[in-house]
Amino acid sequence: MNDEPRRRLAGIAPRPGAPKPDPILIVEGTSRAFGGLRAVDVEWLEVERGAITALIGPNGAGKTTLFNVLTGFDRADAGTWTFDGVPLRGRRAHQVARAGMIRTFQLTKALARLTVLENMLLAVPGQRGERFTGALARTWRGQESRNRRRAQLLLDRFGLSPMSGQFAGTLSGGQRKLLEMARSLMADPRLLMLDEPMAGVNPALRRSLLDHIEEIRNEGATVVFIEHDMDVVMGISDWVVVMAQGRVIAEGPPAVVGRDPVVIDAYLGRGAKADR
Amino acid sequence: MPTAAAYLITAALLLGSAGSSDSGESIGGTLNHEGQPVAGVTITVSLSDRAVGSAESAADGTWEIPVRGPGVYQVEIDVASLPEGLALRDPDRSVLTAVEVQAGQHKAVVFPMGERQAEQSAAITRLLNLVAKGLTYGAIVALASVGLSLIFSVTGLINFAHGEVVTFGAVIAWLLNASPAGPRLHVLWAVLPALALTGFMGAGLERGLFRPLRRRRTGNVALIVVSIGLSLFLRHIYLLFLGGAPRAYEQYAVQAQQSWGPISLPPKDVMILVVALAALVGVGLMLQRTRLGTEMRAVADNKDLAEASGINVDRVILHTWVLGATLAGLGGILLGITQTVQWDMGFVLLLTMFAAVVLGGIGTAYGAALGGLIIGVATETSTFWLPVEFKVVVALGVLILVLLVRPQGLFGLKERVG
Amino acid sequence: MDLLRILTDSLRAAVGVSAAAYALAAAGLNVHFGYTGLLNFGHVAFMMMGAYGTAVTVDQGGPLWLGLLVGVAAAALLGLLLGIPTLRLRADYLAIVTIATAEILRLVARSHTAEPLTRGVFGIQQFADPFYALNPIPLGRYGFGSFNFSHRQLWVVLVGWAVVALVLLLLTALMRSPWGRVLRAIREDEDAARSLGKNVFAYKIQSLVLGGVIGSLAGVLLAVDTQAVNPDTFVSILTFYAYTVLILGGAGRILAPIVGALVFWFLLQLSDGLLRGAVEAGWLGSLIEASDVAAIRFALVGLGLVLLMALRPQGILGSRQELLTDER
After folding, report:
1. Same structural domain for residues B281 and B336?
2. Shortest CB distance from C185 goes to which of A114, A138, A144?
3. Fewer beta carbons below 10 Å: N end or C end of chain B?
4. Which subunits sit against C, judged by 3+ Cβ pairs under 8 A?
5. Which of C230, C191, C197 has its CA nearest to residue C51?
6. Other C-beta atoms within 10 Å of A26: how many?
7. Does A113 contact C178 at a Cβ distance shorter than 8 Å?
8. Which residues make Cβ contacts (< 8 Å) with residue B174, sequence separation at least 6?
9. Are residues B149 and B189 in the same domain?
10. Are B186 and B194 in contact (CB under 8 A)?
11. Is B168 found in the same domain as B92?
12. Does C232 sit within 8 Å of B400, measured CB to CB?
């Protein structure tokens, strides 16, 4: 287990908007409202590079909306956010992805009628063969072979090799989660945003996914993931951000946040348990 | 409608040459006004100032006068014998002096009809009349479109065969009213049975076709393609049974106009407007006040939630189809009264209905009604500035404009669209 | 009823110019619908661009080859103009916009106002003589029995199918490439494609233009064959003929357009022949007359489309397994 991120974050004051030693993502004054209802209203949020940050909060807290806004899938009403210093507001979803911020979805989007291998190959950025002229020129073969080898390695790592020639639509729910995670790695993410990666996953697979997430962090990527299950959060995160009613109400190391009365109140006050 | 014109002209030419004259030459034609045949008008043919023959236009507007050989004849229409309210579009052309007939030719001659305006039409008067005409047509479009919108809101299906449901109502009414093989009911008596049968058709389509397909989890795209195939099929079945020529109901075929101030309309148009608006109001009340209406709105809003709260979604869908079909059938009958009954009358109306539904906001019944009225008025008044041939283009232009600028239409919800 | 004659007529239709043209139209539609999932219901407009582009250019005094370029360019332009404002709409709304646009273009071409350019309802005729002048086939008829073509017809047929073959070769290369893979990903789930850095909008435009250009070739072929363009030819039914051909063949398969066109035109001509034969032989009594056969044919196409979608939507070449994994 890589202790580096936790050590770096050890001295940080556990409060909303806490500045981080080496932030990869800085969100400033970002808000999004739906017809009068404030879904997201984040004054200040910094995400530490190379750490696993959990984004938790009761249902309707605005976590997925925040994801959508940051990654270009939804428009912000106000505010800015920078990724490695580059402002991303106004950039469209595919541009955000190309910048290195890759997100997954709550309901897995396995591309059903593409094979598992094709799903993986799709994710690789900068493919010559993906341009119309490049496709015709057939000069993409070399790149494709290299990508194929890399994809095979990843599929091995995630245990999906046997299915590489099958349609992704034939995979079980758990296998799709794995595929989505493996696929997002093919995209060379610098920041991986996972939206409820454990949702609907059986406990055995859960452990496997958690291990994969830690591996990803250990290889140098930053991970932010939305999660409901507090056990999961406690076990793996380097830092926890708590949202409720669109705002960040608490931040800190998992143990601290778990004891924070504001957090407990937010969960219990809504009638939702902190863990299910 | 270009197709209608084509058929009319073809029919006119064919009928005009249908006479059996010994030497084979004749002069003939069909008198009609806005799709309605004009009967009982006297036409005289002369050669060098001597009368050769005369005829009276029949119930279907046709007339034919045999001539003794090729030559240059004079053809005169007796303006005094024209029915009340009708006049030649060009009053100076009541006598055609140089009608040349070749050997063996059945020469077709046209006397275009127009409306006799009590006073010289000022621009405002003309505009007001166009608006009135547009309201009538728009009310019909609204009726038919509400059905389309209701079915979409409850099932998510854009039914490309909706035009054929419209035609069905008109055709059944015609079979009951004017068909030589039928019971020859007065058209008003034919309405109720025709509506009942059309409602039945809607139920049949839902139960027999769309519900089984939905059970098999057929996607929306596939269902649209099915409805297109259905449209193709039904349309040509109508063609087989009805033939290509336009048909008219026995009653209300030709009506003189009445004037209300600057506005001149045949009384049937007023009746149509009243009936259509009454039906639309009825639907609105039904949606708000009755349990079925509430259930329909619930299913339209959120099918799963409605089902969870105990609503029998399949039953609601069935009733929606019956209601939608009945409204469409009524629209068809009214359209048949104000124009003619043809195998593709509903198909020709389809894109205009889409325009109405999109304008009003897909999935909102009130929207479709209002959209229909607006489209009707817009297309009719557009003829004030644009050539008549662009009427449909105007409706389609509105459709595209709305989808580009405000896809949810006037009353729709933004999420449903993109 | 001369069964042999009916069969050879059907065979002739299956390999004839119309079949080749519909293979091209379906190939274009395959790019839109089969591979990218775009519900383009206005495909006939692309065919019209090809046909009218060619005819109008020649009518205005230009050479035939320039007409061909104009037709193709017009289709490409239409793809751009159509795509840019509408591609963010949901599938069924895109269907309505495209069908409305096609009808607008047809009505405008038909109008009196457009007569100086398009000759309105009369259309343009006799513009393709230079094409026939290139015909290397010697005078005569070729074939066996009643399955034969004149040297003129054979020329058009050969050129038509040659174009089909070239287009399908091109599409094979494209669809097997990463570019094709992105299109298919867009068909499955646009947002997933976006989340992996693909500019979905740009790809959809490319798909629209490519499929539209291929569709325009279908229009050119038809126009050259009949040496006539007329606005009442390019009605929405043609789009749905192309869909029937494509779905029959198996949308999303490279060879679907050829298979679909061959089978479709064979069956169409066969039903026509059988019906007419039955009418002439008096088997159907007074129920159906010879003039009804055309309407019956159309009705059968409609019925066929319904049955196809209900019973075998994956078409001839499609696999049931792939159909079952379709989650759209």
Report:
1. yes
2. A114
3. C
4. A, B
5. C230
6. 18
7. no
8. B242, B247, B249, B336, B341
9. yes
10. no
11. no
12. no
Contacts of C191 in chain B (CB under 8 A): none
For chain A, the structural domain boundaries read: 4-110+189-269, 114-170
Query: C64-100 pLDDT, tens per residue?
Result: 999 999 999 999 999 999 998 888 888 888 888 999 9
CA distance A24 to A190: 9
Instruction: Among A64, A101, A104, A109, pick the best mutation site for testing chain C contact (most C Cβ within 10 A).
Output: A109
| B69, B131: one domain | no
Q: How many residues does chain C have?
A: 328
State the residue range of the domain holding B215.
Answer: 123-253+261-416
Cβ–Cβ of C302/B387 closer than 8 Å? no
Say which of C302, C313, C326 has its CB closest to residue B232: C302
Last residue of a domain, one of B52, B80, B115: B115
- Assess contact for C74 and C68: CB atoms under 8 A: no
Is the domain of B186 the same as that of B55? no
- Check whether domain A4-110+189-269 has CATH 3.40.50.720, yes or no: no
Chain A residues with CB under 8 Å of C174 CB are: 132, 135-136
Report the pLDDT value the prediction gives residue B121, as an integer from 0 to 100: 56
Give partners of A (≥3 CB pairs < 8 A). Answer: C
Cβ contact (<8 Å) for C196 and A102? Answer: yes
Does the residue B248 lie in any domain? yes
| Position B2 in a domain | no
Residues B288, B159 share a domain? yes
C163: distance to nearest CA of chain B, Å? Answer: 28
In whole angstroms, give the CA distance from residue B82 to residue C272: 47
Tell me what percent of the residues of chain C surpass a pLDDT of 70.
99
Is the residue at B1 inside a domain?
no
Q: Do C179 and A134 touch (CB under 8 A)?
A: yes
Q: Tens digit of pLDDT for each residue in B309-348?
A: 888 999 999 999 999 999 999 999 999 988 889 999 999 8
Query: Do B84 and B164 share a structural domain?
Result: no
Domain boundary among B98, B115, B132: B115
DSSP string, C123-164: -EE---HHHHHT--SPSSEEEETTEEEEHHHHHHHHHHHHHH
Q: Please give the residue of chain A at the shortest CA–CA distance from C205.
A: A132
CATH number at residue B94: 2.60.40.10
Decide if B397 and C298 are in contact by the 8 Å CB cutoff. Answer: no
- Nearest-neighbour CA in chain A from C204: distance (Å): 12
Taking the model in full, what pTM does it have? 0.83
The answer to whether the CB of A176 falls within 8 A of the CB of C188 is: no
Q: Are C114 and C219 in contact (CB under 8 A)?
A: no
- How many domains would you assign to chain B? 2
CB-based contact, B393 to chain C, within 8 Å:
yes
Range of the domain at C175: 3-324
pLDDT at B67 over 70: yes
Neighbours of A40 (CB within 10 A): 29
Q: What whole-number distance in Å separates Cα of residue A123 and Cα of residue C133?
A: 52
ipTM for the predicted complex comes to 0.90
Q: Any idea what the CATH number is for the domain that residue C290 is in? A: 1.10.3470
Query: Could you give the number of structural domains in chain C?
Result: 1
Range list of β-strands (E), chain C: 124-125, 141-144, 147-150, 228-229
Q: What residues of C are in contact with residue B229 (Cβ under 8 Å)? A: 240, 244, 301-306, 308-309
pLDDT tens, residue by residue, C269-304: 999 998 888 888 877 766 777 778 888 889 999 999
- Could you tell me if B394 and B279 lie in one domain? yes
Give the DSSP H or E segment for A28. strand A23-34
The answer to whether the Cα torsion of C105, C108, C114, C120 is positive or negative is positive
For residue range A51-97, what is the model confidence (pLDDT) as tens digits?
Answer: 999 999 888 889 999 999 999 999 999 999 999 999 999 999 999 99
